[in-house]
Task: inverse folding
């Protein structure tokens, strides 16, 4: 597919940033541009024109301080699923009412937080029993996560996943909710990552609103979770004739939600991958080249094992920083660890790529930094760039001392 001028300009700007980041801070490194996160959020706001759309940043997918600060300044909320994420949001300056707590098993850690007006979605009866009185005492703003029938285990679709309330669980929870005097304001669902059909969202919305009848509640908001696919990422299933996700159709669907019930005043979304994937890249340097019969092998200082777990099931575009021309050859881009699993991509690249060159693995902004593995090399540098291209070191590469201290403490120390 021919590149548009926008795509060429964007690629060139990434090349420039990657080169400067590598020169100043070394490789491997992640380079993040938080204004691209805001740009994606603005796209969703435009799709939902005419309704009140509230967006929550999924902190788990890109926990970089500059991103959280930029998101907060833009007026968006923080969605958290762990105590570390909650602490990060609070340290960034988020007020409790601008923090949404989701996830399972949170009754194991959330009771220690006495935060007024915190927003919390119950996920189970056990959570209601453990957190109900605490929620009333702290005036938490509450909702619940529903498990629609279109939600399933992504690896084994014949099974349900572990999240939210089924209809029977809601019926069992209803007397407890009334007894504790809990006021549930909204209903939430999250289907899965990389949803391919708008129709799945439509079914989930309809089911979720009907589920509110089990609790005799009129929802003030419907939270559609995340799951939108990100441009620039591909999976094997997408190569089997599936059409691209209909983002305009998704926007049209969001705009219909307030008309489904008079009580609904807002629509919420919690996208992670769609919002942040394109906002960061992984920059690696070629250390060695091996010419073999079926493929060329580039041995790099970064790869799947340490930095890009998602490359196991997704293909991302790779850019060369140097202007390498000439015939291409099937090329396997490998990381530095002693694992055959450690490869970023197997793609066509110019045969002129050589040791010392820089490669950019695109779409490294969603989940790659929190999934990063030390695996005897330590954590990589994280560099942020503002809209003017000014670079800042957000996290130094991990030193041997920092790495070894984790494993070498004496007993009782």
Result:
């Amino acid at each position: 597919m021919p590149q548009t001028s926008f795509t060429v300009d964007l690629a060139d700007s990434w090349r420039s940033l990657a080169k400067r980041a590598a020169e100043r801070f070394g490789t491997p490194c992640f380079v993040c541009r938080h204004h691209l996160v805001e740009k994606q959020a603005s796209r969703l706001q435009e799709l939902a024109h005419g309704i009140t759309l509230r967006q929550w940043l999924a902190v788990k997918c890109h926990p970089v301080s500059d991103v959280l600060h930029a998101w907060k300044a833009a007026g968006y909320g923080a969605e958290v699923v762990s105590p570390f994420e909650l602490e990060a949001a609070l340290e960034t300056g988020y007020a409790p009412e601008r923090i949404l707590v989701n996830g399972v098993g949170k009754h194991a850690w959330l009771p220690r937080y006495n935060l007024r007006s915190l927003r919390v979605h119950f996920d189970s009866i056990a959570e209601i029993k453990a957190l109900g009185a605490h929620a009333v005492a702290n005036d938490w703003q509450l909702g619940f996560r529903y498990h629609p029938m279109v939600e399933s285990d992504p690896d084994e679709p014949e099974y349900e996943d572990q999240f939210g309330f089924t209809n029977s669980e809601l019926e069992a929870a209803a007397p407890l909710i009334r007894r504790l005097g809990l006021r549930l304001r909204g209903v939430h669902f999250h289907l899965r990552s990389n949803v391919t059909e708008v129709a799945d969202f439509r079914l989930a919305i309809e089911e979720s609103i009907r589920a509110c009848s089990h609790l005799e509640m009129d929802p003030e908001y419907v939270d559609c979770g995340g799951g939108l696919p990100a441009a620039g990422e591909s999976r094997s299933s997408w190569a089997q004739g599936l059409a691209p996700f209909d983002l305009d159709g998704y926007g049209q669907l969001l705009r219909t939600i307030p008309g489904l019930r008079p009580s609904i005043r807002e629509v919420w979304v919690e996208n992670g991958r769609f919002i942040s994937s394109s906002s960061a890249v992984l920059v690696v340097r070629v250390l060695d080249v091996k010419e073999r019969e079926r493929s060329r092998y580039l041995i790099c200082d970064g790869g799947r094992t340490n930095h890009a777990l998602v490359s196991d099931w997704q293909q991302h575009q790779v850019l060369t920083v140097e202007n390498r021309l000439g015939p291409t050859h099937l090329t396997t881009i490998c990381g530095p660890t002693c694992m055959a699993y450690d490869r970023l991509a197997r793609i066509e690249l110019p045969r002129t790529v050589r040791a010392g060159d820089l490669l950019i693995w695109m779409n490294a902004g969603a989940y790659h930094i929190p999934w990063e593995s030390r695996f005897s090399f330590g954590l990589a540098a994280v560099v942020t760039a503002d809209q003017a291209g000014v670079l800042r070191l957000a996290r130094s590469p991990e030193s041997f001392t920092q790495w070894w201290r984790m494993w070498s403490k004496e007993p009782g120390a």
Q: What stands out?
A: The first helix runs from residue 5 to 25. Residues 1-6, 236-241 have pLDDT under 50 and may be disordered. The first strand starts at residue 29 and ends at 32. The radius of gyration is 23 Å.
